[in-house]
Design a protein that fits this description.
Elements (H helix, E strand, L loop, with lengths): L1 H18 L13 E8 L2 E7 L9 E8 L2 E6 L10 E3 L10 E10 L2 E2 L3 E7 H4 E2 L4 E6 L4 E6 L17 E8 L7 E5 L2 E4 L7 E10 L3 E2 L6 E4 L5
Parallel strand pairs: 1-9
Antiparallel strand pairs: 1-2, 2-5, 3-4, 3-6, 6-7, 6-8, 10-11, 11-14, 12-13, 12-15, 15-16, 15-17
Main location: membrane
Membrane topology: Single-pass type I membrane protein
Pfam families: Interfer-bind, Tissue_fac
């Protein structure tokens, strides 16, 4: 009889332990995977993959740390995020200062272990976005005006906006249009074009020696009738 009672007690204890929620620090949540930082001009994106897509109602939160401060600080725009990316462009940091990030999954008061992103600078990660382009047509020329990439205050490129060089691709808007590439100034003029002809072009910025930006959208304009 005692042996039977003992066996029954063990079964009950095991059942109760199975039914109880995980204790603090004990969780089946796994850390996010393939965590990457993408920066274009002044837009900062943290992106990751779920470790187990079958687990529902999981959110994610991230922190950052600078070399000057050992304290982890909540990353703005990246708290209790239900998707697999967040925008932390509002963070106020020196773009040349090294920072670290960490991110974890959260569900019902439980958290996964942190996934850490090694130190980097915002400037080092940044890719140059497309410049803004305005065109004016003449009979055998196109006047081009280029504004540097980024926001009006040139946040990411504040010290470099005057150092950009610009590469332009231009072609006639026809199936046989030969494409030409040339370096242009922020305000420049493209000569020796045909009158009453539609030309298309795109521009990208470069910051020597290492950074080359992405092309602008394609702009098309028709040269005017000779006067």
């Amino acid at each position: 009889m005692l042996a039977l009672l003992g066996a029954t007690t063990l079964v009950l204890v095991a059942a109760v332990r199975w039914m109880l929620p995980a204790a603090a620090g004990e969780t089946n949540l796994k850390s996010p995977q393939n965590v990457e930082v993408y920066i274009i001009d002044d837009t900062f994106i943290l992106q990751w993959n779920r470790s187990d897509p079958s687990v529902k109602n999981v959110t994610f939160s991230a922190d950052y740390q600078t070399l000057e401060n050992d304290t982890w600080v909540k990353l703005p725009g990246c708290q209790s995020v239900a998707s697999t990316k967040c925008n932390f462009s509002s963070v106020k940091l020196n773009v040349y200062e090294e920072i670290k990030l960490r991110i974890r999954a959260e569900k019902d008061g439980n958290t996964s272990p942190w996934h850490y992103v090694g130190s980097f600078t915002l400037f080092g990660k940044a890719q140059i976005g497309p410049p803004k382009v305005h065109l004016e047509a003449e009979d055998k020329a196109i006047i081009i005006n280029i504004l540097p990439p980024g926001t009006k205050d040139h946040g990411m490129w504040a010290l470099d906006s005057s150092s950009f060089t610009y590469s332009l691709d231009i072609w006639k808007n026809s199936s046989s249009g030969e494409r030409r590439t040339k370096t242009v100034y922020p305000r420049d003029k493209i000569y020796k074009l045909s009158p009453e002809t539609t030309y298309c072009l795109k521009v990208k910025a470069r910051l020597l020696p290492r950074k080359t930006g992405v092309y602008s959208p394609v702009y098309c304009i028709k040269t005017t009738v000779p006067i």
